Amino acid sequence: MIGVQLEKLVAEAPAGVEEALALADGFDDALVHGLARMNDVQAAAVAALAGALGASPLGPAAAEAAAKIASGSVSEEHLVALAGARTAVFGAVHDALLAHLDGALGRERDAWEAAPQAPSGDALAGSRSWLQELAITGWRGVGDELVSAADQTLETLWDAPATRGTAMLLDGLAAELRAASPIATMDVVPARRWADLWARALLARPVAARPAETVSGRLLPLGVEVQEHGTAVQMVMHAVLETGGATRLVRTSVAAPKVDTIVGPAVWRLLHRYPLFLKAVAEHRCVEVTGLPLTAGGDLLWSEEGAAIRAATDPFVTARVQLAQATAPAVPPLDRHPVRIAEPVLLEDYSVADGVLTLHGHGLALDLDRLPAGGSVTPELVAASTACIGLLRWDGRWSLQVLGARGKVKRTEVEAHNGDWAQGPTDPKVLKAEARTGDAVAVLRERAGRLLRK
Amino acid sequence: MLDSQESAARERRSTVRVVPPVRPRKLAKVPFVELADGRLQGVVSSGSDIARVYVSSVAAGSRTFSCSTNNNRPCGGLRGAPCKHLQALVAEAVLQYGKERVARYLRVEAGPDDDLVRLLDGGQESAQAAVVFSRFLRHLSYLELPDTTEPVAEMHWFPAMGTP
Asked: Considering its fold, how many domains does chain A have in total?
């Protein structure tokens, strides 16, 4: 990413984003206090959100839902209509932001062409009735008992592959509601975040990822991001895939359930069934993939059988040589939300001060919160870096999530990437700390083995 | 208190940290600790029998406590004051969550030099062993669930966040 590209990205904002988000904010505030007892202001805000969809196919259903809910009838069907309206607003914001980003970077992107997929069964009915209770009660009124009411539903969602994503989402939401208790007296309710999670779960349908094609070629890693909450972790490798004549941006990931006491570099141990994935990540190895399914959304479904480890690569070289010509994948309709924007970029010859990266006079916020705890990429290295690979993100403004950085710390050239410790920490200090606390995964597996099957 | 800019950011962002970070600790002695359902509760491995565990809990507010085996046999060490299992539970909870968060949850006024266990003056109550033990088993069962290479788009809302 060069100076003029950054300038285009941050200097202008796509029109209408703030107005659209303001519509959603009104609904989110109503959800804080509960839809069963809205005051006039909240009812008007919900009606305004529905009204914004007036010209779309969702319009009539959303308007009816807003009216019915204002009169006190909070049915599941009406909630789904309003969640749909809110999701459509965020979808439009996503599209505007991504088009703006693609324009600034000159990035080519595939169009979404896949036909919608029919859901199989209705495994999510239980989850929807819990979400209905949450909406009726409002975040402020949620207590331990209502949170625990989701436990049984969650167990069944974890069991089926098609609903596992929703299980991970709801588990994360439930843990947050529990940690924030008593929410009635909480300083600031994370209204947009919880409404995001609520709407996403309410609209979820049990469908498995459907591959659009199978591909073979060379996979060149750019970097890895860690996504985690108390009971789940997902490692997402961003990479360039060379197939025949085409160069594409893809992601490939492994996700595993976990518990909250498995933290820091220890989370990598949960992926022990994927040694080739871990090796590729830790050693920046080129991977020759054979017959791996690729979804229309750009997710390469990793399989150890379809992967062969080849020579070590330099992610900075891959980014410098390949990023400009790689085609970005389309975004699946349901995933159109600003939170999903994560575009790999390379930045060089910039300066860093107070958490802001400046290139040719244009600033980009560094999202240093997103550096995983106990990883090898530290805020100090980022501050001292002169080159980095990161993901462009948007959450109210553009920011950069660093995946790997290179720079001079105390007069030595240092390079670090998020996946450096995928095969175990290499820093003696971190190894010592791990030795002190012991292997959490092994201890809990022993306990599980002894106590669970009795 | 948060300043207004910071609170606006928390209110109108899709990714903010809500759950405070949990610190790594040795799990061998106290494999499970949680602040839930109005209690600090958890499971303490028996020092003498590898197949036995104790379920210990402290109620927020009343500061009453209980300890028994998972088969509901009362803990022999519990004679009006917290036993060694309860002491271990509180000590590990402080390691995991920090003293301030544990004290706040239990609604105990604790100064920087106070030992939390000494402030548990509510006396004994009847045990909640079955409920807590089943929550522990549920917790362990997460490690038995399958991993997946199918993309989980929902996890974009949960970026790993370093210690602030």
From this structure: 2
